[in-house]
Amino acid sequence: MPLKDSYLLPAAADMHVHLRNAPGPIASLVTPTIRTAGIDTVFVMPNLAPRPVISVDEAQEYKRALEAIDPKVNYLMSLYLHDSITPDEIRKAKASGIVFGVKAYPKGATTNSQWGVVSFDPFHEVLKAMEEEGIVLNLHGEVPSSAADGVTVMNAEERFLPTLKGLVDKYPKLKIVLEHCTTAKAVEAIRGFGENVVGTITSHHLSLLVDDWSANVHHYCKPSAKSPEDRSALLNAVVTSNGKFFLGTDSAPHDITSKKGKGNTAAGVFTQPHALGYVLFALEEGISRGDVAEDAVTDEALAGFFSTYGRKFYGVPQATQKVLLKRDGETIKESLSGGGVEVVPFRAGEKVWSAEWV
Amino acid sequence: MPLKDSYLLPAAADMHVHLRNAPGPIASLVTPTIRTAGIDTVFVMPNLAPRPVISVDEAQEYKRALEAIDPKVNYLMSLYLHDSITPDEIRKAKASGIVFGVKAYPKGATTNSQWGVVSFDPFHEVLKAMEEEGIVLNLHGEVPSSAADGVTVMNAEERFLPTLKGLVDKYPKLKIVLEHCTTAKAVEAIRGFGENVVGTITSHHLSLLVDDWSANVHHYCKPSAKSPEDRSALLNAVVTSNGKFFLGTDSAPHDITSKKGKGNTAAGVFTQPHALGYVLFALEEGISRGDVAEDAVTDEALAGFFSTYGRKFYGVPQATQKVLLKRDGETIKESLSGGGVEVVPFRAGEKVWSAEWV
C-alpha cells in the first residue's frame, strides 16, 4: 500500500466549514464531529438562513452558541459580504479578534446565496478596509449559470477566474482565498499569484468526478466535481502546496429531506467527521491511478496541507496538540441522526482512517 | 407568441421509447399515454431486465403483450445486440416484419447495459447481415466513463463519434441511428454522413442543460444534457432536419423509489404523455432566447421531425390520421400511479400542449 498505516500530525485546521444555525439540530449533530476528525480549528461559514451573519455582534453570538456545543474547538468566524457591511464594521471585525474573513457569494450560485454579490464595485471601500486591516476575502469562485453567456456548473469556476484576477490587481495586498478549487485552471491561477492569494481544497473534490454526482445526490455540491484532469490537478496541489493550498472541506450538512425529499436536491457533501481520512483515501487512490507520485505524500506535505499553511495564512497560532491518523480505524456511519434531522456522510459504510488525539 | 396556438399534423412516430416489461406495472401505466401524446407508432427499446430482448420470438411475445395493453399503437420492435444474436436471427428478424432494428449499448453506459458491447469487431457477421437486410443499427452513442482516458458523462458522446465513423466506413450501406444526440458535435457528425445515417433527438434534451439535472433527479438521464451551445444545436437540428433528425424521446419511466429512494439515481426522463408538447415548449423557449429563428418552426419542419422522416427511414407507412396540437391544453400530472408504482413526468405541474385525434 502506497501510504503508511499511520501518521502523527499536528492537529488539523479546516478552513471552510458549514455548521448551520446554532443552537439548532444540525449544528448539534455536526459540531461535535470536528474534533472526531482530528481538527481543532475551523473557519466557519456565515451563510445561515433566514439571515446570514452580517455583523461582528452576530458573529460573536454565533461563536458563543457553537462554543456551547463544543468549547474545545477554536472557531474562526466570518461575515457574509453584504450591502450593510461598512468599512467601520471591517475595523470592528479586526479589533474583535474573532472575525477573520468576509465571504463573497455570487448571487444565486449556491446554498443561501440569495443575498450575494452581483458586482464587487459597490464594495470598494469595504475591500480597501479589508486590505488595510488584513481581513481575508473568501470567494465562492463561480459566476452564476447563464445560458446566454454559455455558463453552466461545469465552467462557472473557470469563468470566475478573470474576476479573481481583477480583484488581485485592484487590491494587491488583500488576502484572498479562492474557496473549494475544483479545476486545473483554478489551481494554475492560484499558483500564478503572490502569497496573499491562496486556495482551499475540499476532501470530496479529491475523489469525486462529474459522474459520481450525476447519479448520487449525496455527492452533489457547488462547485460541482469535474473531470479526471481537474481531480488530478487538485491532488497534486495538495502534495505540492508550498502554502498555496490548504484544507477547507466545505463540509455541508443537509437533512436527508433536502437530498431525497420532494423538490430539488440541496448542494453539499457532508465530510466533517472524517475530513482527513477522506483526503488520505483520495491520495492513495490517486497514487494507484498514477495521478500522484508515490513519494509525494510526505508527512511534511500532509502537515502543511492539513494544519500549518492554513493557520499561517489566517495568522492564528500553530497547533500544540497532535493527532494520530490510523488506517481502517472505523466504519463511516450510514447517517447521523438527532433532533429530528438525519445527515448522510460521504462514503457512508466504508472503512476510514481514524484520528486519535495524543 | 412566436408559435401558433395550434398545429394540425400527421400522427407522430416516436422512434425511441422505453415501455419496460410487459405485462408489468410500468408498461400498464405508460403504454396508454403514447396515443395521449398524438403518437401512433413507436420504436420499442429491448433493454428489459432481468433479460433483454435478444430473439425474434421474444420480440414477438413482447409486442403481443404491449398490444394487449394498447392495440391501437404500432409497435416497431428491436433486439439487444448481444453475443447470442446470429446472422440467421437477423434474417429471421427481417422476415418477421416486426423487428426493425438492433440496439447496441456500450457495456455499462446506461440502464440495463450490463450485457452490452465492448467492441463491435465480434459482431462483424451480424452487422453485415443487418446491412444486407436493411435492419437498422441503433446506437447508444457513448463510450463508458473512464478516468484513465479522461471520459466523463460530459464528453462520452463526443468520444464515441470516431466509433460511429468507423462503423459508417466499414458498413457503408448499414442504416444507423445515433440515438438521443446531445451535442453540437454529434449533430455535425450526423450531417456529414449519407442519408443512411441519422440521429434521433429527445424532447427533454431540447430544454435541459447540465444545471437542470444537477439538482433535479427527474432531469437526470444518459446521455446527460450538456451546454447551452449543444442545446441550441439540437433545436436547430429539429427545424432544419431535412430527414437527418427525427423524434426519439427516450422516454424512460422509473418508479419514484429509483429516483428518490435509497441508493443511486436511475437515469431517465419520462416524457411519453406530452412528447410533442415538450418539443413545442422547447422551440418556443429557443426562439425567445434567440437560439432558433422565429420563422424556422414551420408546419413542414414539425411534420417531418415528428412523423414523416422517422417513418421513411424505418420504411413504415406514413400516417393516415392527424392530430391537432393545442396550446395550454392540459396540466401535466404530478405523477402517474398504479399497480404499486409511481412515475413522475417531465415538467410536472406545468400547462402543456394537448393532442387531439382528428
Automatic annotation (TrEMBL), chains A, B:
- The organism sits in which domain of life? Eukaryota
Specify the Amidohydrolase-related domain's residue ranges.
7-266
Q: What is the organism of origin for this protein?
A: Cladorrhinum samala
Q: Which pathway does it operate in?
A: Pyrimidine metabolism; UMP biosynthesis via de novo pathway; (S)-dihydroorotate from bicarbonate: step 3/3
**SUPFAM superfamilies per the record?**
Metallo-dependent hydrolases
Record-level GO cellular component terms: cytoplasm
Q: Which cofactor does it need?
A: Zn(2+)
Gene3D superfamilies for this protein: Metal-dependent hydrolases
Instruction: Cite the InterPro entries for this sequence.
Output: Amidohydro-rel, DHOdimr, Dihydroorotase_CS, Metal_Hydrolase
PANTHER family in alphabetical order? DIHYDROOROTASE
Q: In its UniProt entry, what is this protein called?
A: dihydroorotase
